[in-house]
Write a structure and sequence with these properties.
heterodimer; A: 116 residues; mainly beta; B: 6-stranded mixed sheet; 50% strand
Chain lengths: 116, 116
């Protein structure tokens, strides 16, 4: 079974540009969540989608947005990039609807975004 | 406020020595608890999780963790460390509601170095 796939793996953008990152979850998984990892702030939750609906949202500005498609693939978009947006962006997928035991979130390898 | 504290930023142990990584959490209710490991340039891999029941949980790679409600702790242990265990370890909590454990709060991480 293929794991969580994130594309691209590396990205360099200029300040002020926008960027779109993609995440393909494990087949059958309907929940996709996104995290930002930086040396200063650590791992921070961005948002979670389940069946094309945003179910949870972290404390990030509106420049960060996401969506999920009917095949559960998800994209996140960052507009008007700032230098501080440089980070490893991780996507995780899960089969859970919520509240079940014996499930887990599987993480992709991440997209390394550098803003110059 | 919900938070996870990993007091040790960096730990160095000798190969074959025992290991304990500390994790304390602050949460309004009993959370789901997790330990993840991250190798350089990689995503996160789940080592073990605690949802309910036996407070001593076994994970992969010979790791175990003990949930102590009275101390709000979930420390990770391994009796004998291997050089391949060198990585960064993250403790995380997630709420016990729909999709909760796809909205994780992570600690700052503990970087483990292993001396031969």
């Amino acid at each position: 079974k293929a794991g969580v796939t994130q594309t691209p793996r590396y990205l360099i953008k200029t300040r002020g540009q926008q960027v779109t990152l993609s995440c393909s979850p494990i087949s059958g998984h309907r929940s996709v969540s996104w995290y930002q990892q930086t040396p200063g702030q650590g791992l921070q939750f961005l948002f979670e989608y389940f069946s094309e609906t945003q179910r949870n949202k972290g404390n990030f500005p509106g420049r960060f947005s996401g969506r999920q498609f009917s095949n559960s693939r998800s994209e996140m978009n960052v507009s008007t990039l700032e230098l501080g947006d440089s980070a490893l962006y991780l996507c995780a997928s899960s089969s859970s609807r919520g509240g079940e035991v014996n499930t887990e979130a599987f993480f992709g390898q991440g997209t390394r975004l550098t803003v110059v | 406020a919900q938070s996870v504290t990993q007091p040790d930023i960096h730990i160095t142990v000798s190969e074959g020595a025992s290991l304990e990584l500390r994790c304390n959490y602050s949460y309004g209710a009993t959370p789901y608890l997790f330990w993840y490991v991250q190798s350089p340039g990689q995503g996160l891999q789940l080592l073990l999780k605690y949802f309910s029941g036996d407070t001593l949980v076994q994970g992969i790679k010979g790791f175990e963790a003990e949930f102590k409600r009275s101390q709000s702790s979930f420390n990770l242990r391994k009796p004998s460390v291997h050089w391949s265990d060198a990585a960064e370890y993250f403790c995380a909590v997630g709420p016990m509601f729909s999709g909760g454990y796809n909205k994780l709060i992570f600690g700052a991480g503990t970087r483990l170095a292993v001396h031969p």
